[in-house]
Amino acid sequence: MISEKEYKKRRTRLGRRLKPYSVAVLFSATQKIRSNDTEYPYRQDSNFYYMSGFREDNATLVLVKGAKEVHSYLFVAKKDKTQELWTGKRLGKEKAKESFYVDDVFEQEEFSTKLQEFIQKKQRVYYDFKLDYSKVKLLKRYAKTIQSYENLATLIEKMRLIKSKAEIKLIKKAINITKKAHHKAIKVSAKLRYEYELQATIEYIFKKNGAYSDAYTSIVACGNAANTLHYIENNNKLIQGESILIDAGCEYEYYASDITRTIPVGSKFSQAQAQLYEMVLKVQKEIMKMIQPGIFRSALQEKSEELLCQGMIELGILQGDFKKLFKEKAHKRYYPHGIGHWMGIDVHDQCPYKTIYGEEFALKQGMVMTIEPGIYLDKEDKSIPAKYRGIGIRIEDDILVTKNGCENLSYEIAKEINEIYSLT
Asked: What CA–CA distance (Å, rounded) separates 177 from 332?
């Protein structure tokens, strides 16, 4: 768990970044309607949770800055016994005062009145520019002296780039649960008939081990389905002799894991599957060797493309001169995505890759990202050798940038071919 002291430190850091005489407002996520009067399971807005640790809806966090001093206020839903009968207990104002290290706690019904008070003689308002317009209008209604509006999300998401020890611990826990799920999938895949049975096995392991949410919709793609990058139907048969691309990770206490493994249906890969697998694995290992503070993600991307392009030429998937093919980006047909992304509270963490001036951020100690090279060879592509058609391979791990290099947080999840075979 993240301690309330850490949340307070985050608010203090954010307060230092606010300009004098300003008000910063963060709203909780709203309930999302699934259909008619049924709702999706509630999940707090990531930036709101990062700054407060508060998990309920109908809440607001406000930071008010004068010349230098900063005060924080939390607005929470009023306790209502009738409503709680249907939707569960609320923390309420008094319990929130005991639990959260803010200057004061109010009920949400007081927000409009208090906002008028907070915003008096202030020059700037910070809010998340992704807010719906009705909430923006409320902020602007009382803004008589406001000179500018600034995007609060930009400041928070830059803070989220560097993970604390407590955050890394939660990510490791999510990965450990995901390891159990992937290993179970390897063990039982030959005994199941459909992709959705394998998906159910994976997600059962998540929940059994305390990860009540998936970090994203699981991909369980057998055979040619693996060549659809965001395939989530998961309703095809598991066919002996094919490979299965499994992209599945859990969320533990709001922190994600993101793991992809490609395994055989049955005991072993075919020769063609193994050749492609070893090529992608070799590329992943080479990219991980490059990771250290000061390296740019774009350098990792370019190197991964070079290595995969060369590998495709060696296997006869691409034919011709390397320099010419690379310049023409011929390899992008079979490797269309990036080498990786930030990961944390969101599986694709809402952290910037560039400054507001367009300059790329270099890697720093404490950043967490995925490394996920792949190759996707559609069965209808007559330009490639027949033995490779219909095979999709991706291998993805979660990486922590350290002082002198990196740590593969998911190294325990089987990916060497002999490790996979030992689990079947």
From this structure: 33
pTM of the model: 0.96
Catalytic: 337?
yes
Cα torsion 4, 5, 10, 13: sign: positive
pLDDT at 133: 61
Distance of alpha carbon 7 from alpha carbon 358, whole angstroms = 30
Catalytic status, residue 104: no
Active site residue 381: no
Q: What per-residue confidence (pLDDT) applies to 141?
A: 76
Is position 37 annotated as part of the catalytic site? yes
Q: Please tell me which residue in 258, 346, 397, 398 is annotated as part of the active site.
A: 258
Task: Return the CATH number of 4-159, one of 3.30.300.20, 3.30.70.260, 2.30.130.40, 3.40.350.10.
Answer: 3.40.350.10
3 state SS of 401: strand
Q: Where does residue 418 rank: exposed (0-12), middle (13-18), buried (19+ CB within 10 A)?
A: exposed
Residues of the chain with pLDDT under 70: 133-134
Judge whether 178 and 259 are in contact, CB under 8 Å: yes
CATH code for residues 165-423? 3.90.230.10
Taking the C-alpha atoms of residue 33 and residue 331, their distance in angstroms, rounded to an integer, is 42
Rounded Cα distance between 340 and 370, Å, is: 5
Contact residues for 62 (Cβ-Cβ < 8 A; gap 6+): 23, 24, 25, 26, 72, 73, 74, 75, 114, 115, 118
Tell me whether residue 302 is one of the annotated catalytic residues: no
Each domain of the chain, given as residue ranges in start order, spans 4-159, 165-423
CA distance 68 to 83: 41
